[in-house]
Amino acid sequence: MSSNELPEPTAPEKKSPAEETPRKELAELSRHAPAESAAPAGEDTGGSPDRRGLLIAAAVLLACGGLVGYGVLDTKEQPKPRAVPTAEVTYEVTGTGTAEIAYLARSESGTATVEKGVTLPWRKSVEVPLGKAPSVAIVLDEKGGRASCTLAVRGQHVQRATAMGEYGRATCSGELPAAGAGEGRRGAV
What we know:
The chain is α+β, with helices and mostly antiparallel strands. The protein is built from two helices and eight strands, in the order ααββββββββ. A four-stranded antiparallel β-sheet has the order 4-1-6-7, with no helix packed on it. A four-stranded antiparallel β-sheet has the order 3-2-5-8, with no helix packed on it.
């Protein structure tokens, strides 16, 4: 053989099917076998892939549970107020002209409702919380005149007062039993 000549390629040797089968099985098994650890001996690799997946799933589940719990516990919704027992109160102002009228209606804070420039006569029935003193106050305007206020609790007349003259004033008030005394119309025990 000279230096310019190349060796002739030879055909690969054919193996019998009996020899080929064990090699295929060995290749298949090695593909599914767990890889050996590349970590030095004695060093923890963090567990098997199954354990790592389980730890990650537990952490995600715990985080989701915490967010759901936070959403349930941190609601901005306020508790609904209990029904307050009330009594029906009727206010009436008779006379002529105009007046400013202040009266107590269903308000636990006890603040009055004020209506200005009301043409007389005027009448209003409202629910007043038990324990609050119902009242109506009138103030005549600069033209003066004469006006009377009356107050009735559950249809029973309680008081009458009269205002006269320029900026004349009158107030009618009454008493309601305290809540829980068993005399309320709505929500009473």
